[in-house]
Amino acid sequence: MADKKMKEHGNVLADNRKALHDYSVLERCEAGVELVGTEVKSCRARAIALADAFVRLERGQAFLENVHIAVYDHGNRFNHAPKQKRRLLLHKKEILKLSQQVRERGLTVVPLKFLLKGGLVKVELGLCKGKTHEDKRQTLRERQDDLDARRAMREH
User: Fold this and answer.
1) DSSP 7-71
2) Tell me, which fold does domain 2-131 have in CATH?
3) Whether pTM exceeds 0.85
């Protein structure tokens, strides 16, 4: 059953659907995450919640905040704290580029997905612009129109 689940979802461990609803993604990039052993095991068990997660850029480093990685069931007294600050592994140029975009254009860096790539846990980051209420309604309208068009094509 685990093999079927991996084929179904690919190597995506967690998705941030709320971010795609609240923000329009302008640019995407991939970063490593500095994790301890029990965090990796919880990630592999897909015990991750990205609902209100964000990236803070400070002192030349990027930190992933407000990500809930559940405590590992079989861990011992050295288990991790579920909502601790986690460092992102990015090149200096990438961090400078992101911080410049955030400072000048008022954009936000949001984690979109947690991935398993080559045995390592990675996070897909999105450089995002916040949607207004009207933008969200427009997106819902477009999605509904697309669904109606597919349904009509299937019927004929």
Assistant:
1) HHHTTEEEE-HHHHHHEEEEEEEEEEE---HHHHHHHHTT-EE-TT-EEEEETTEEEEES-EEPP
2) Small Protein B; Chain: A; (2.40.280)
3) no
Listed residue (115, 113, 142) closest to 126, CA to CA: 113
The one-character DSSP state at 79 is: P
Q: How far apart are CA 14 and CA 8, in angstroms?
A: 13
31 backbone φψ class: left, alpha, beta (φ>0; ψ -120 to 50): beta
| pLDDT tier for residue 41 given thresholds of 50, 70 and 90 | confident
Q: Is the pLDDT of residue 6 over 70?
A: no
pLDDT at position 118 is: 86
Q: Hey, where are the domains in the chain? A: 2-131
pLDDT tens readout for residues 125-140 = 999 998 888 888 888 8
Task: Give the integer Cα–Cα distance in Å for 63 and 29.
Answer: 15
